Amino acid sequence: MIQTTIPQFPDFTLKISLFKDVTNSQEIRNKIAEYPFAFIDAKTICSVEQLMAALYRVFIEKNYNRIRTKSLTSECLLCLAPTSNIGEAFRKFGLKDDTKEVICLQIIPTEDIPTSDTDIGLILNGAEVDFNDEHLRQFCNKDVIREIYKFDASFQPNSIEEFTRAVVSAIQLRGL
Predict the structure, then answer these.
(1) Is 2 helix (H, G, I), strand (E, B) or coil?
(2) Which of 11, 21, 34, 162 could form a disulfide with 157 if both were Cys (CB 3.0 to 4.6 A apart)?
(3) Which among 57, 69, 34 has a CA at the least distance from the CA of 173?
(4) What sign does the CA torsion over 71, 121, 141, 139 have?
(5) Would you state the pLDDT for residue 151?
(6) Which CA distances in Å does 14 have to 8, 43, 150?
(7) Is 91 left (phi over 0), alpha (psi -120 to 50) or beta?
(8) pLDDT score recorded for residue 122
(9) Host H or E run for residue 117
């Protein structure tokens, strides 16, 4: 698990964990509203930069009172999406019954860190691995991501960095 902040928004601390071989995705989906986390299907995330771009957008939306969902963690799923359809964002980025690799995200007001004690390891049945680009690249499915962001077939990136840049650009441009 990493614990970090975004320098421009020090009032919030991010806790991000990545799990593989998760066996209880269906159980978590059934109780998702009970948890203070965003559960993201890791096959839809190609890099740390992609998730951080969405989180940055979440905090911008909060700063300008434009949050459209009930929580900052659910807003993150919406900000990952290339459209403003909340249901579609949850279907595309959220857990499916057969999801095996899961990103767990918690957004905590910095002053609440000492009292934040929910252990994600007790909720997810799987092996925690480092949240980094190396692991995300193992789990991401470029075809799924291409479909989500509606990349034209003629777009053939020369590297994962170029692919990531296209995804981040789509996140940043939504709604403009």
Answers:
(1) strand
(2) 162
(3) 57
(4) positive
(5) 95
(6) 13, 21, 29
(7) alpha
(8) 84
(9) none
Q: Which amino acid is at 126?
A: G
Phi and psi based region of residue 65 (left: phi greater than 0; alpha: psi -120 to 50; beta: remaining): left
Which three-class secondary structure string do you get for 36-87?
CCEEEEHHHCCCHHHHHHHHHHHHHHHHCCCCCCCCHHHHHHHHHCCCCCHH
Distance of CA 14 to the CA centre of its chain: 11
Q: Is 38 buried (19+), middle (13-18) or exposed (0-12) by CB count in 10 A?
A: buried
Sequence-separated (6 or more) residues with CB below 8 Å from residue 26: 97, 98
* Count of alpha carbons within 13 angstroms of residue 133, beta-carbon side: 9
The three-state DSSP-derived secondary structure of 5-29 is EECCEEEEEEEEEEEECCCCHHHHH
Could you identify the residue written with the tokens 């249901």?
87
pTM of the predicted model over 0.90:
yes
β-pair type (2-6, 38-41): unpaired
Strand pairing class (9-20; 38-41): unpaired
Q: Strand, helix or coil at 31?
A: coil
